[in-house]
Amino acid sequence: MANLLIENLSLSFPLYHGESRSLKKTMLAAASGRLGEDRKHRLVVEALRDISLTLKSGDRLGLIGSNGAGKTTLLRAMAGIYEPVGGQITLDGAVTALLDPSQGMNFDLTGRENIRLRGLFNGLNDSQIQQLQADVAAFAGLNQFLELPVRTYSSGMVVRLGFALATAIKPQILLMDEWILAGDASFMDKARHRLETMVRGAEILVLSSHNSEIILQWCNRVIWLDNGQIKADGTPEDVMAAYLPPEQFAQAKAAISVAA
Amino acid sequence: MNMIMPGEMKVEIEVPSLVTPPGRTVTIAAAQNWRIRASLAAADLQETWRLWPLVWTLSLLDIRLRYRGSLLGPFWLTLSTAVMVGAIGFLYSRLFHQNIAGYLPFLSISLVLWNFINTVTAEGCICFTQSEGMIRAMRMPLSLHAARVVLRNILVLGHNIVVIIVVFSIFRVVPSQASFSLLPAAALWVTDSLAICLLLGIFGARFRDIPPIIASVIQIAFYLTPIMWNPSMLTHRGISAVFVTWNPFYALLEIMRGPLLGGPLAPGVWVTALGYSAALVLLAGFAFVRARPRIAYWM
Fold first, then answer.
1. How buried is B94 (Cβ within 10 angstroms: 0-12 exposed, 13-18 middle, 19+ buried)?
2. What would the pLDDT profile of B228-271 be if each residue is shown by its tens digit?
3. Can you give the pTM of this predicted structure?
4. Which of A71, B122, B154, B186 is the most exposed place for a label (fewest CB within 10 A)?
5. What is the largest CA-CA distance in chain A?
6. Mapping DSSP to helix (H, G, I), strand (E, B) and coil, where does residue B101 land?
7. What phi, psi does B197 have (nearest 5°)?
8. What would the DSSP string read from start to end of B183-230?
């Protein structure tokens, strides 16, 4: 059983514009006794404010909202990358976060070495890593390129490697940003099935997307984020109806009924 | 439109054999008090320990990457150290009126160890900023990046030790009975390296002008510490206390160098080395406990 529990999560980014970041300025401020004041008056962006939610096995949460509403930041906080400034997050289960295509790969290393590092990060043993390498190689179709540094790959190949790598490890809690839904048509045909297997296999899915059809189809709960706060939380139908202009909502509904 | 629909499944491909990593419960709380912060920092270190195969592979790949496509590979390190020890050794033994048979073994150990200190401090400053991509992509223990720098430099040190061995066999230097103390000394060096990487890494991530400051401090320390010159050269001039007795670099170098050059166990030097190390570890621990949750924000 996987669980994801968020209680009163708040998160803010300090703004260090060029100068305030330097040691000189901090030292001068400390010397003139302004450090305390500086701390209080430090400019921060409140990215998330007082967010609480509980997800359990079977939950498929969609995050919607305009750009800068805090969707990706919330995903990063759920993944444990940004530790909260207030509140707490409890994760029970293996987490995979697919936040950007490069996924912390080292572009100077070969594809094979990057796969090995990911396997080690996930605590796999040697035979499991070999299995992982074979699986990723077969799926990404990189063949001999796997022995070359990733920086020599075309951007399409990087996405393919990133996708294959990300989807080869089966998490209990899957956090996805929408980049994974964009790719070239021929690859996406192949990727579709694999991603579905993974989404179905994951006990909890959190997906951030601007694509209303995907949200309506994949999710059973939707949260609308606005300015770092939860504006609406409910079934996909209800929230999307409030979020989208009526004609777009009708369009999305129609698209789904055709697909089904 | 180009997207994935779970409903339609026209392309039937083989379902890959997916690997499931073990899941654990993690609670990430906004640190309100020191106890929570300290336990999270301890968990971070513990996690790095658990992931040591990853640290090992990362360090190994770092070195392999640096010398990818080169003829001698990492043995360029050995060669350049050998040339440096040889060239400086012959010149300075004349300058300082030293016997080359005594001076060259002294210099080879000193330079190789100093090289380690120099690179650990320089790379420690950027241990977090350099791993920005990894830090922002997934949750991983932050001390892992510091451990990677330490292990990488231990591997480099391993290549340079060849120079010491060659010099020692040429001049037939025999380490003393006190050489058993090299083991605890090495442990102290590893601990100190990890502490200095964490400490400098945190400051380097928050303040981007730390690396050049540290570089110049280390440069000055190189000339003020008995590395090129032997501490015995200072004894009759009455200023040895500042540069030798109270010098943390001297104490740390000497616990390694002394027994190797055939000297006896020096309790006074050990006390100084342990004292400075304790202060360093405490300081690094304090900084890490306090700043760990913020490091990702500074990237």
1. exposed
2. 888 777 766 666 667 788 889 999 999 999 999 888 888 989 99
3. 0.85
4. B186
5. 69
6. helix
7. -65, -45
8. HHHHHHHHHHHHHHHHHHHHHHHH-TTHHHHHHHHHHHHHHHSTTSS-
ipTM of the complex: 0.80
A179-223 confidence digits (pLDDT tens): 666 656 667 677 777 777 777 777 888 988 888 887 888 888 999
Do residues A85 and A11 touch, judged by C-beta distance below 8 A? yes
User: Residues 40..79 of B with a Cβ closer than 8 Å to A: which?
Assistant: 50-51, 53-54, 57-58, 61, 65
pLDDT in tens, B79-95: 988 999 999 988 988 88
Enter the tokens of residue B266.
């020096």
Residues above pLDDT 90, as percent of chain A? 3
Number of C-beta neighbours around residue A77 at 10 A:
25
Which token pair is A96?
């995979």
**Three-state secondary structure call for residue A200:** helix
Residue A203 three-state SS: coil
Quickly count helices (H) and strands (E) in chain B: 11, 1
Measured in Å, how far apart are chain B's first and last C-alpha atoms?
A: 36
- pLDDT of A26 reads 63
B/e letters for B31-47, b = 16+ CB within 10 Å, e = fewer, are: beeeeebbebbeebbeb
CB B222 within 8 A of CB B118: yes
- Look at A217 and B7 and tell me if their CB atoms are within 8 Å: yes
B216 phi, psi to nearest 5 deg: -75, -35
Residues in A touching B22 (Cβ below 8 Å): 94, 123
Token readout for A201 is: 């296999």
Instruction: Concatenate the DSSP letters of all residues of B43-56 into one string.
Output: HHHHHHHHTHHHHH
Q: What angle do CA A191, A197, A203 make, to 5 degrees?
A: 135
Residues of chain A neighbouring B7 (CB-CB closer than 8 A): 217, 259-260
- Residue B125 phi/psi, 5° resolution? -60, -30
**Rounded (5°) CA angle A24-B202-A23:** 0
Residue in B3, B15, B139 closest to A197 by CB: B15
Pair B216, B143: CB distance under 8 Å: no
Which pair of tokens denotes residue A166?
Answer: 């990300």
**DSSP 8-state symbol, B241:** I
End-to-end CA distance of chain A: 30
Per-residue pLDDT of A142-170, as tens digits, reads 778 888 888 888 877 888 888 888 777 77
Average pLDDT (A117-132) is: 86
